[in-house]
Amino acid sequence: MKKIKWTLMTLAVGLSIGGAFATRLHQDCLGATQYYFNGGYVLAGRMGIDYICNTPSSNICTYYKVGSTYTPCCWGNYCTSNCKAGNPVPKKAKN
Amino acid sequence: MNKRQVVLESISALLIMLFLYASVSKFLDFQRFIGEMNNQPFPNSWTPFLVWTVPSLEIAISLALIFERTRMVGLIASLVLMTLFTIYTAVILLHFFDYVPCSCGGVIRKLSWPQHLVFNLFFVALSVLGIILQRKSSFKSIIITKNSFV
Questions:
Q1: Interface touch B109/A27, C-beta < 8 Å
Q2: Domains: count for chain A
Q3: Residues A39 and A7 in one domain
């Protein structure tokens, strides 16, 4: 009985840690430098401080660079201190 | 191992997988996690506290769920944490905050906010079921222990 329990627990721990490492390879876009598109690709700054991605929106908020290609990372409306009235501003801009 | 115990072990294993996967993912991409926390609608001054507290709590709950002695504590803590996450998701969906933050990349992160709500509710239900089953099996073992003394 205990054998079943510990097999189950070992599987759960192994799968979750292994899964975290395995999916990490595909999800580190926010660790990369972020750009937003404004006619050309411009440095976005720090998320939550210099800008926020306001959703729901099907727009691409920020991109990251894979080789020489800009690949979508975050969805939403790219919003900085010059956001429209009624829209939020990044927290740094509030201070 | 009876049916109830198998279900209880399976619930614990599922919760362990959820919390351990979530916490290890956060620590593996810590800078990104900080960015995501900053993007949430609460003040940025909370970020240094939350980025350490949330994944540490998730690891602690996973450890508590592994061992029989601490399982009840783990299940209750899991219920509390998942309820808080669910309330937060509901509050976001009801537009209580200025804006709805984006969810970026990853596996769980790929879920939309409504999908997040359903996902969280499922784990809240699992925690409740786990508590009920754990209480029943604890009660049963107390009776067995008492009878063995008689």
A1: yes
A2: 2
A3: no
